[in-house]
């Protein structure tokens, strides 16, 4: 993979949150391994999907790559600069070219501010244009996301979820960024609205040559928009490949279980669904070896002993599984 | 719809009472028939509505809207009209006169001005300080947070009244009336900022986890902007009720200091130093009306509590 001209490159990124285990005597020595040594890169113009269950660390990853939270270690090279070595003012300027869309449009808009104030904020904090020009810019911006100019004078509580998400998207694209983290942008919306928002994001990608890190727990949503996909489990990326490779030739038992769990509009019961045992383990006491082994249908003693390396399947496809050949044979339908 | 929800019974009675006190305090020069420090040497310790010049006669003639002593309203507007009074050369003491021959009613009315001003200014000062320090403390965390919180605990751990007395005793006893007035307000604010800072800090800690705060940071808003535009305004509903409910604290604080002779000094009127004359049991039994400031205190505190609680009820999420 040509990693040298990547827009975003993530190297050995880790985020451990301290887990207060002691009631009286401060912090214990335990940590939540939210993101544990992950690596990936995103090319300009690409939509990179990050999928996994809730609690696997995908939202933490999204916040880390924008440096909204500080990492435990590792680097994020964005546009040839390591975000974590920037001082506060350089980082603030850098934010013009990277943005985020949050999952819940009910909490991502300040309830006390009119839409005009929320949307004008990017222009004001970066001194983009004169105050008198902002109004015209906002009008164009709203048109881009399919809203009428009269929304400007209203408050967030006057809008539906879909409309709010359009407003949040308008804020994200206001400064014409290169890169957007979309953190489950449709998960809290009605199914009918989901498609509209996904289409809007696809249009915006084409119109502004946007690069996306698209975070989702829903494989069909990811398939709709993404060029490449990484699957995360308990703080680690377990498989990465093009959308087509992950959907048709996945070589990790966890990915296959996720694919198997996708509901299908077929009333006939599936004969051989791949159902996982147990719950996702605690991120504080992570399992030894391969983190997936306690729930894996094909795990053996070796899986519990050592951490699986990246097994290359093609130039764009790898799986972190000792038994990736067996995994690829697991029936999912 | 929203309007009717806001106006519950408590709010209605509380704000009516409060409005009455505010109007009386604002128009004190007009409502009071005499200047508060004027001594009428012919009528020491007279009973309510007794005629000083004719001890055995009935009630003196009370007239509405009489021209009496001239004054400048709020220091600017010259006038000599009073709400009521009696004919020239004669005084009407609605609540009697004190041992120096001063009209108790007039002193009560001017005392309302002092009490309300102490309440409002005290709340504004300590809430501004508490909001600023608590906001910064919660938002930035780290050593700034530690220092601010330990400081607030220091003030919260010491018993309020002793702290007030100690702080007051640091300063010279004889001060100009204005200086001692602002000294009282500063001391009361200093004692009370800590608890407000702590509550604001807690709210900031929870508010800053909101997505809209993170979104503002992602857009590139500076820390000062995030705090002042996105976090602190969202503490407003709580602050308003809390401010109303804590105004009585400042009013009572000034009264306590003045009662002990450390606040507003004679001959300037304050409900506190007026009550000091009720310390004498003979005076109290012979002239119970010198307790009038006590009734005023009760009503003012009640008014603020009613409005504060009413607002609290109105803003509480409905089920």
Give the biggest beta sheet of chain A. 8 strands, mixed
Biggest interface reads:
A-B, 28 and 18 residues
CATH superfamily of the largest domain in chain B: MetI-like
Low-confidence stretches of chain A: none
Percent helix among the residues of chain B? 55-70%
Oligomer: heterodimer
Strand order of the largest sheet of chain B: 1-2
The structure class of chain B reads mainly alpha
What number is the mean pLDDT of chain A? 88
Gross morphology of chain B: elongated
* Low-pLDDT regions of chain B: none
The portion of residues forming beta strands of chain A comes to 15-25%
User: What class do helices, strands and sheet pairing of chain A give?
Assistant: alpha/beta
Choose one word for the global shape of chain A. globular
What pattern of helices and strands is seen along the backbone of chain B? HHHEEHHHHHHHHHH
Number of helices of chain A: 11
> How is the main sheet of chain B built?
2 strands, antiparallel
The percentage of residues in β strands of chain B lies in 5-15%
- Estimated radius of gyration of chain A: 21 Å
At a glance:
By secondary structure, chain A is of the alpha/beta class. In chain A, 31% of the residues lie in helices and 22% in strands. In chain A, helix 6 links the parallel strand 7 (179-183) and strand 8 (211-216).
What does this entry look like structurally?
The complex is a heterodimer of chains A (333) and B (319). Helix content of chain A is 31%, strand content 22%. Chain A has 333 residues and is of the alpha/beta class. In chain A, strand 4 and strand 5 form a beta hairpin. In chain A, helix 3 crosses helix 4 and helix 5 packs parallel to helix 6. The longest helix of chain A has 18 residues. The model of chain A has no long low-confidence stretch (mean pLDDT 88). Helices cover 62% and strands 7% of the residues of chain B. In chain B, a hairpin with a 3-residue loop joins strand 1 and strand 2. In chain B, helix 7 packs antiparallel against helix 10. Chain B is elongated, with a radius of gyration of 24 Å. In chain B, 38% of the residues are buried. At the A-B interface, strand 6 and helix 3 of A face helix 8 and helix 9 of B.
